[in-house]
């Protein structure tokens, strides 16, 4: 007889790629997860996973079983949460990924009061600046800054994001202050490495304008970009939720080149085909109110 906890363990292992990571996500010991997998394989009369010392892969039977198992595990989890929500309680596990800098500076502080008001929610927040695959890595949702390019995601806007070209006063005194888009091409740039290209994108009267500066420093974290700009390494295009305080303090100077950067947003996105839970919708609504329109980081001072 198949047990739900065995199906849940199998799905978690398939998504995580290892028993140890699945155990961490499920908050169980490795031995318990392994035992549940073995019991389910015995009940099915089939081997679902190839186990070696280096990696874990799905067998042909495992790959065939995974799609339905994933759906079953998700439906059972959501059914239990729906029953609680019918009683007016938001409850159950949620797993969300978000960028490090935004998560530390703004997302975390916005979430704390919501979680205190809804202690039944078991939220795991993974802060990571890489481009997370929400569907294959088992996330209920991801929060991102920019544009959502993954067609498998359904995106909800949480807040607008205004970006500014900035540099340290010391850098501008040494290299001059650009006054046009053409001037930027001769300047050293600090670029977000996860985008894969060293350029700045602006919204011109006839569409997008792309300017390629000289790469001075590339890094995949907004805090480090901010610090590198303050250190005078070059010009950076940063959102105001990162650069705002340093601009007010005079450690960074806004640069006007006569053209606005392309508009971006703070998004929450969930995998297409999944019915988002009431608790996920409630978190999204709370974050919209907490950030405001325009967002509070553009209104302070």
UniProtKB/TrEMBL annotation:
<dbReference type="InterPro" id="IPR000847">
    <property type="entry name" value="LysR_HTH_N"/>
</dbReference>
<comment type="similarity">
    <text>Belongs to the LysR transcriptional regulatory family.</text>
</comment>
<dbReference type="Pfam" id="PF00126">
    <property type="entry name" value="HTH_1"/>
</dbReference>
<keyword id="KW-0804">Transcription</keyword>
<comment type="function">
    <text>Transcriptional regulator of the ttuABCDE tartrate utilization operon.</text>
</comment>
<dbReference type="Pfam" id="PF03466">
    <property type="entry name" value="LysR_substrate"/>
</dbReference>
<dbReference type="InterPro" id="IPR036388">
    <property type="entry name" value="WH-like_DNA-bd_sf"/>
</dbReference>
<dbReference type="InterPro" id="IPR036390">
    <property type="entry name" value="WH_DNA-bd_sf"/>
</dbReference>
<dbReference type="InterPro" id="IPR005119">
    <property type="entry name" value="LysR_subst-bd"/>
</dbReference>
<protein>
    <recommendedName>
        <fullName>HTH-type transcriptional regulator TtuA</fullName>
    </recommendedName>
</protein>
<keyword id="KW-0238">DNA-binding</keyword>
<keyword id="KW-0805">Transcription regulation</keyword>
<dbReference type="GO" id="GO:0003700">
    <property type="term" value="F:DNA-binding transcription factor activity"/>
</dbReference>
<dbReference type="GO" id="GO:0043565">
    <property type="term" value="F:sequence-specific DNA binding"/>
</dbReference>
<feature type="domain" description="HTH lysR-type">
    <location>
        <begin position="2"/>
        <end position="59"/>
    </location>
</feature>
<dbReference type="GO" id="GO:0006351">
    <property type="term" value="P:DNA-templated transcription"/>
</dbReference>
<dbReference type="InterPro" id="IPR058163">
    <property type="entry name" value="LysR-type_TF_proteobact-type"/>
</dbReference>
């Amino acid at each position: 007889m198949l047990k739900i906890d065995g199906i849940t363990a199998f799905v978690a292992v398939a998504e995580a790629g290892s028993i140890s990571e699945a155990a961490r996500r499920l908050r169980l010991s490795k031995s318990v997860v392994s035992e549940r997998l073995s019991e389910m394989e015995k009940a099915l009369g089939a081997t679902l996973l190839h186990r070696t010392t280096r990696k874990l892969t799905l067998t042909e039977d495992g790959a065939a079983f995974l799609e339905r198992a994933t759906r079953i595990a998700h439906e059972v989890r959501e059914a239990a949460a729906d029953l609680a929500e019918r009683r007016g309680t938001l409850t159950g596990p949620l797993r969300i990924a978000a960028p490090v800098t935004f998560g530390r500076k703004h997302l975390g502080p916005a979430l704390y009061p919501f979680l205190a008001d809804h202690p039944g929610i078991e939220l795991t927040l993974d802060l990571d600046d890489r481009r997370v695959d929400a569907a294959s890595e088992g996330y209920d949702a991801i929060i991102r800054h920019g544009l959502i390019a993954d067609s498998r995601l359904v995106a909800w806007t949480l807040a607008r994001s205004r970006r500014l070209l900035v540099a340290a006063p010391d850098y501008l005194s040494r290299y001059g202050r650009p006054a046009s888009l053409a001037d930027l091409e001769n300047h050293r740039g600090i670029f977000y490495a996860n985008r894969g290209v060293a350029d700045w994108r602006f919204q011109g009267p006839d569409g997008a304008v792309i300017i390629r500066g000289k790469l001075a420093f590339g890094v995949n974290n907004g805090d480090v970009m901010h610090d590198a700009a303050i250190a005078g390494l070059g010009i950076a295009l940063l959102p105001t939720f990162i650069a705002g305080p340093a601009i007010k303090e005079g450690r960074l100077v806004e640069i006007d080149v006569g053209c606005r950067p392309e508009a971006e947003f703070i998004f929450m996105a969930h995998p297409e085909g999944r019915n988002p839970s009431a608790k996920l919708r409630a978190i999204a609504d709370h974050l919209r109110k907490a950030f405001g329109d325009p967002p509070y980081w553009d209104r302070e001072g």
